[in-house]
Fold this protein.
Amino acid sequence: MSRKGTASTGTPRAGGVFTPGRVAIGVVAILLLVFIFENTREVRIRLLIPEVTMPLYLALLATALLGAICGYYAAARRRK
């Protein structure tokens, strides 16, 4: 017989929502957003050929999103 709330029953264990890893990722995400939105001045950025002027927070946010997408893709490929 299996006990209620164990991994073998398919139900989540108590405290499964706030694991240490999820809390750490949440803290890092909040710090990243604070850093991004504190840097609001206009900067010139070279995108291969063209040079554009845009707020620094947009460049940082785009870079963070691209990094998250690449990390998710790499983790998904590793699970297969």
In short: The CA atoms of residues 33 and 65 lie 11 Å apart. The longest strand covers residues 42-46. Strands lie at 42-46, 51-55. The chain has a mean pLDDT of 83.
